[in-house]
Specification:
The complex is a heterodimer.
Chain A (H helix, E strand, L loop, with lengths): L3 H12 L7 H26 L7 H17 L4 H23 L4 H21 L1 H4 L5 E2 L7 H28 L1 H11 L1 H6 L4 H27 L1 E2 L1 H4 L2 H14 L6 H17 L6 H15 L3 H10 L7 H4 L5
Antiparallel strand pairs in A: 1-2
Helix pairs in contact in A: 2-7, 2-10, 2-12, 2-13, 3-4, 3-5, 3-10, 3-12, 4-10, 7-8, 7-10, 8-10, 12-13, 12-15
Chain B lengths: L1 H30 L6 H19 L3 H22 L9 H23 L14 E4 L2 E4 H23 L1 H11 L1 H6 L4 H23 L10 H15 L4 H21 L5 H15 L12
Antiparallel strand pairs in B: 1-2
Helix pairs in contact in B: 1-5, 1-8, 1-9, 1-10, 2-3, 2-8, 2-9, 3-8, 5-6, 5-8, 6-8, 9-10, 9-11, 10-11
The chains are: A mainly alpha, B mainly alpha.
């Protein structure tokens, strides 16, 4: 409990952000929470289980369109969000059964291409999705300030749920099983771990909240189009964030998401032309100089004193 | 007759696809690295062909030597300087690293040449010829012949030359190759350079067929993915069969479903193949 309390306190502090009355900060906070949801979700399949999934964009876009279409049909907004979570989870379950038997690069490519196929289908299916023209969502009849607060708190709540999910997984037999799979999948099967089931559960967990984040995002910006919500970068950014903070740890992805957001705001917004190159340089630096992420640095220093603390014990370097 | 024409169009396209993919397949097979940079290497080759033609008057068929040479050096340096340092790391590390490098290089090209589409307008185009009622666009046919020729050349190089045998040896067993006196890191760099060379040459040839823009890199990378999975990873012959098959499939897909869905068909096929037959049409084979 002593480890959970500070985290809860921090979340409570962040939740008080609207008191400052700055809508720009609230927008940043909402983005940060959304990044945290995506990085934490990827962490379950990519960090714990070590499967290089590039499917985040697929789940995000699927959630965004599910939410947007349902809201357009008159479904109450929170219900549309829940439905988007379920749609993403169901999709991940079926997709997982189909592609999780692939290893390494093959799995990475299959997961990467899924978002591309969904992008094409969404663009072509004009009658349902509005095609390349995009989709407008119903306008909320509350003040701009109230909207900013509403979406900030909703996204923060979703991020907190995702964090709690990560913590539970890490301390549950599921997390232990997933770490075994990362280290040696064949051996895990031999000692009685149902690897298929564990991997599919991890894949579903990596999708469910991302689907919700997609729907929230759609409601937040009122307008979505296929290249926006199915962008390949949406799959890559969460990986960079998780690696930045420390993949396979619980707090690492959150720290990575916040750092990423700060860098994105400070550096890239001012240098729009080289924004992709700046991300590229960040990635190169990350791979060569920070292979265990920020928490990896921390862990190396603390290792002799505390060899087996659950929060820091995951092998962040993998 | 219509079908025969579409088959020819598909094969002509497919030869170029094979040339795009074979370098990617080589790097994947020997280094176990997915080179996300590959699509941008192709685009860079196209730009080199463009500038060679516009400023120096070198025909794209000849500038494959220039673009191939420049790309070989670039690829060699990228592998020797950067990727070699993370060769033993998990799949994700090399994947994310090449993705980062791709963002960097592609952004650089975008800044240098802008996103405008450029085309190579040949002064004396060969036009097309009609044989037995079938139209053969000569530029494309020659480009495809050159692309397939280069692919065959790579095959011969791997099978006969000293460095080719070293590459194959490293692919089979890097440690054993090192014990036999092969400098594995250098072979990695050479292999990556050869992969980039093939991409650059393919880019040169594509310059006379497609408009040139940095935005095309994703499509070329996608093509390389599909061809590798289609033909099975790790052999020149596989890339050749996969490339030709993809070209034909795309041509017929464009006829029956619509030309705008070409890539969708290819990607759907890729996922289905990965699910049901991950070894590709030819089955799994190495560069032996």
């Amino acid at each position: 409990m002593t480890r959970v309390l500070p985290v809860v306190l921090v979340i409570a502090l962040v939740a008080a952000l609207p008191l400052l009355g700055d809508n720009y900060l609230l927008r940043l906070g909402t983005m940060g929470a959304m990044y945290a949801v995506m990085a934490l979700s990827w962490n379950v399949i990519g960090g714990f289980a070590g499967y290089p999934s590039f499917a985040t964009a697929a789940f995000f876009g699927l959630g965004a369109y599910t939410g947007a279409i349902l809201q357009g049909a008159g479904v109450y907004m929170p219900l549309a969000w829940v439905a988007a979570c379920l749609a993403a989870a169901l999709f991940a379950g079926l997709l997982g059964l189909a592609i999780l038997h692939l290893k390494g690069h093959y799995f990475a490519i299959a997961s990467l291409v899924v978002a591309e196929v969904l992008l094409e289908i969404t663009t072509s299916w004009t009658s349902l999705t509005g095609g390349g023209m995009g989709l407008n969502l119903p306008i909320l009849r509350i003040s701009v300030d109230a909207q900013a607060r509403l979406f900030f708190w909703a996204m923060l709540a979703l991020a907190s749920l995702t964090l709690a999910m990560n913590w539970i997984v890490a301390n549950h037999r599921l997390g232990f099983g997933l770490r075994c799979i990362r280290q040696n999948e064949d051996a895990s099967g031999m000692v009685g771990i149902n690897t298929t089931l564990y991997k599919v559960i991890a894949f579903i967990l990596s999708a469910v909240f991302v689907g919700g984040a997609g729907a929230l995002y759609a409601s937040w910006v009122f307008y979505i189009e296929p290249p926006d919500v199915f962008a390949t970068l949406t799959s890559v950014k969460p990986i960079v964030m998780a690696l930045l903070g420390g993949a396979g740890t619980v707090l690492g992805p959150v720290i990575g998401a916040v750092l990423f957001l700060v860098m994105e705001e400070l550096v890239w917004r001012n240098l729009l032309e080289i924004h992709a190159a700046a991300l590229g340089i960040l990635i190169v630096i990350l791979i060569f100089f920070l292979p265990g992420g920020v928490l990896g640095l921390f862990k190396r220093r603390r290792k002799p004193a505390a060899p087996s603390r659950p929060l820091a014990s995951a092998e962040a370097g993998r | 007759m219509l079908y025969a024409q579409i088959l020819i169009n598909g094969l002509v396209l497919g030869g170029l696809y094979a040339c795009i993919a074979v370098g990617f397949s080589l790097v994947w097979g020997v280094l176990n690295v997915i080179n996300i940079l590959h699509g941008t290497f192709v685009v860079l080759g196209s730009y080199i062909a463009y500038f060679c033609y516009v400023h120096l008057g070198i025909h794209p068929f000849l500038s494959i030597i220039v673009s191939g040479g420049i790309l070989f050096v670039l690829g060699f340096l990228v592998q020797a300087g950067l990727i070699n340092r993370v060769m033993g790391a998990p799949v994700l590390t090399t994947l994310v690293l090449t993705f980062g490098l791709e963002l960097l290089l592609n952004n650089g090209i975008l800044l240098a040449f802008s996103a405008d589409y450029r085309t190579v307008q040949l002064a004396n185009p060969l036009g097309s010829t009609i044989i037995g009622g079938l139209v053969f666009p000569l530029e494309r046919v020659v480009a495809t012949a050159l692309a397939l020729g280069l692919t065959v050349l790579l095959y011969v190089m791997l099978a006969k030359s000293r460095i080719g045998r070293a590459i194959v040896a490293v692919r089979m067993d890097a440690e054993a190759a090192a014990l036999m006196g092969v400098n594995v890191k250098r072979i990695y760099a050479v292999t990556f350079g050869v992969g980039a060379l093939m991409a650059g040459a393919a880019g040169s040839l594509l310059a006379i067929v497609f408009p040139i823009s940095p935005l095309n890199s994703t499509e070329f990378l996608g093509i390389a993915f599909v061809v590798c999975v289609l033909g099975g990873l790790g052999s020149v012959a596989g890339a050749m069969v996969g490339g030709l098959a993809l070209g034909v499939i795309e041509s017929f897909g464009a006829l029956f479903i619509g030309p705008e869905h070409g890539l969708t068909i290819a990607f759907t096929l890729l996922i289905l193949l990965l699910i049901f037959r991950p070894t590709g049409i030819m089955g799994r084979r190495g560069y032996e």
